[in-house]
From TrEMBL:
It comes from the Bacteria. Residues 256-360 form the HTH araC/xylS-type domain. Keywords: DNA-binding, Membrane, Transcription, Transcription regulation, Transmembrane, Transmembrane helix. GO terms for molecular function: DNA-binding transcription factor activity; sequence-specific DNA binding. It holds the Pfam family HTH_18. It comes from Pseudarcicella hirudinis. Gene3D superfamilies: Homeodomain-like (1.10.10.60). The keyword Magnesium does not apply. The chain crosses the membrane at residues 6-25, 32-54, 66-86, 98-120, 132-155, 180-204, 210-236. This is AraC-type DNA-binding protein.
Amino acid sequence: MENWKAVMFLLAFGQGIFLSFALIVKGFKRQWSNFFLGLIFYTLALELLNAWGIQVQYHKSADAFPFWNFQTYLILPPSLWFFARFTTTPDYMFKRKYCFFYLPALIEITVRNGWSLYHYFTGKNLPFLLDIPIWFFVTEILPIISMAIVVWIYARKLLHFHQLWTEQSSRLNLSQYLRLYGLCIFLLALTLLWAAGVVLNLPVFATIEAVLTVFLFVFGYIGYIDAAFFTLPVLAGIKPSEKPEFAHYDDEHQLERLMVIFKEDAIYTQSKLTLEEVAGKLRLPPRYVSYLINTKCNSNFNNFINGFRVEEVIRKLNDPKEQHKTLLALALESGFNSKSTFNQVFKQHTGKSPSHYMMTQK
């Protein structure tokens, strides 16, 4: 039975670490919400690897690699915070100075590895770090408090997002509820169990390991099937931001240039098109391009480009020369990167699913 648990922990770790790296790589392609979600998966996957190590007594091996020194719970609160901002706030931008939120995590990893190396090379026994009260508070208690606050803020954002979503579309189905609340509910449950084990000393760590194993398997397979599952839909009707410090630009002229690259150059057919890429083509600051779309088009960036993509699919559906192609092929040619995203965006813009729309056109 114990060996079976160790195998499950190791398999779940493999699933989680593979998914975390895949999400982090996507993040480097300016899909920042995936990057921060990848950091969350990385931390949780290492927790299961640690559970495996304890199960098979790997930590006691003389030649064991101390992977546990690269795990820190201080990664979780800022990662969830930025993930929440990117998925619920249109055109949110990550600034370099925000990297300082990860400085405590970097310090913890550095100290833990330095502690181990000092013992390895000198043979001297050092105090167990968690026995030092200030270290225990900063690395164990503070992350729990921070996670509780961030999960609460994230839940409030999701409830507001849910209200806007239902106002702009039909009632949510089970898959959409899971997409909207699944991660938040899991992290809420994990934080409560975490607090019960660390603060109240309750015997809940076996439950935490089981919850983590199930989570990494279920959400891992969901991530493989639909990489955009965790990305919330873009909602219209967001209040435009105030004009930034670009008063010297001619808004009407720059808007005309923006429309040219969309209507004539069809830049929207480029999959995973980013605001920075559009701004680079126009040689304009990204914030100014965002301002133009918000104020002049009454939309946000993602909703703006998806409107062109939906119109392109509709045009091709009515073009006899395109009748030999599948609906999915037309969607991919128009710039969509997955079937699920296309179905959702198409319904958001037309009020009908693609299949229903095709039936009404016959």
